[in-house]
Design goal:
This protein has 8 helices and no strands. The protein has about 230 residues and is an all-alpha fold. The longest helix has about 30 residues. It is flat. The relative contact order is 0.12.
Length: about 230
């Protein structure tokens, strides 16, 4: 069963709202467990486990920063889990949606100006390319004798030999894209799309179910908070 990008965007919004509303680690863990179950059923978990582990590491880092600022273990855990649930659902949106379809949904259905939608999807499109180029540059510099061993100052100097080529490539890519967009009339207000991503019956049902579940959960959380007060 496939959903159109707008349904996935609504799912991202609903999960983000719930993650912000939830205040306990148990609820956030349950929400993250639902995300893992959906990823497993959809076949995403096995293909994107490296990205998921990277998100877990990033969330743990934010939790440590929160702990150093508040010296509260509960606050640090909640912050880490909240970030993990929000970034995981966003990752699911990105890996299961083509950038062209996402652009169409943002422009035609979300009524976002084309320039902003294009900037958003273009940034997503070039992230994998940037990572591949970074790895290629590191391998090329390693073949030339670059070493990352030593103290932190030595490592920074070594990484500069990787950053400089990447910056030059990024500038060249930006210039090429600017010329391509200008030749294709990027500033024109009339835009046509080859693909259609209109909502189907299953999408309406999914959005209504997610909306109902979100409202019920928020009402339950509000009731628990009010009784506690």
């Amino acid at each position: 069963m496939k959903f159109v990008p707008l349904t996935k965007i609504w799912a991202t919004i609903f999960v983000s709202i719930l993650a912000i509303a939830m205040k306990t680690p148990e609820l956030l863990l349950a929400l993250f467990g639902v995300e893992l179950l959906v990823m497993l059923i959809g076949g995403i978990l096995l293909r994107q486990w490296k990205a998921l582990f990277a998100l877990i590491g990033f969330s743990a880092f934010l939790g440590i920063v929160q702990y150093l600022g508040s010296w509260s273990v509960d606050s640090a855990i909640v912050t880490a889990l909240r970030m993990l649930t929000m970034t995981t659902i966003f990752m699911m949106l990105i890996v299961t949606t083509k950038t062209q379809d996402l652009t169409v949904a943002l422009v035609q259905q979300c009524r976002i100006p084309y320039a902003y939608a294009f900037m958003f999807t273009a940034a997503l499109r070039f992230v994998p390319d940037f990572l591949r180029e970074s790895k290629a540059v590191q391998e090329a510099q390693a073949c030339r004798g670059m070493s990352l061993e030593g103290n932190w100052l030595t490592k920074i100097k070594s990484y500069m030999t990787v950053i400089q080529p990447l910056m030059l490539k990024s500038l060249s890519r930006s210039e090429t894209m600017a010329l391509s967009l200008e030749l294709r009339g990027f500033g024109n207000q009339q835009h046509t799309f080859m693909r259609k991503v209109s909502l189907q019956a299953v999408d309406y049902v999914a959005v209504l179910v997610m909306l109902g579940a979100t409202l019920v959960t928020l009402y339950t959380l509000w009731g628990v908070t009010s009784s506690a007060i």
